[in-house]
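pinned: reference chain
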Amino acid sequence: MLPVPGAGIHYEVRGSGRPLLLVNGGDGDAALFGPLAALLAEDHTVITYDLRGNSRSRLTGPPETQWIEGHGQDAHLLLSALAGGEPAYVFGTSYGGMIGMDLLSRHPGQVRALVAHEPFVIDLLPDADRWHAFFQDVCELYEREGLDPALRTFAEAIGVDAPPEPAEGLPEPVRRMLARVRANMDTCLRYELRSFVRFRPDIAALRAARFTLVAGSEGPGTLLHRTTRALAESVGTGIADFPGGHVGFLTHPADFATALRGTFGG
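pinned: its structure tokens
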């Protein structure tokens, strides 16, 4: 547990070699990276963590609206404590890619290379206002009717699957993880979604860095593919295809690890 202003960050470290930070998205649970991290730990020091306010990274004060920049500061403090002064490879998925972008723009010396997987940069879209209004509606639906109607509406609109429930018959560690992820959706819908999607990356910083945009090879019609394309156009870069869909790192860990190693060059 790393104490940071306003929270204690639960983190896990595997392996040895050059540091590699894996940054999760809206459910913020390090266990989702478990299979991928185990593979990458063969030749990297792999750091995973729960985002503040999610799972085991408890806030030390009352909950409040969160911003990507605050999470970027958490990533900076984690690397300062764990990377031994060496720049790290950084992989971030969804919100995690945006956290990586903020880290890169404000602490470029800590980032050897950044890979952003389907970043949720809604504010770069020409119809961003419509999406901001929709996310407000989803959060209000959650307050009125609860999690399941809000999740169904959100998932159908952006084109991804909602997190599965922790059903009987699953291995106990998986059930515990899914229960944490489900609980994290309260944090997402109350304190993260509407503010996180206002993030606008520093395009000049991305152009000056080793920065790679990637998207899942499944589901090219999703909103996440649209946001990835919008950022690629802004930066003037291409998009690499990675295995699986939005959670390809979990569903295709071996192929994903191979693709990630190829992108980082090791």
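why pinned: The longest strand covers residues 111-117. The radius of gyration is 17 Å.
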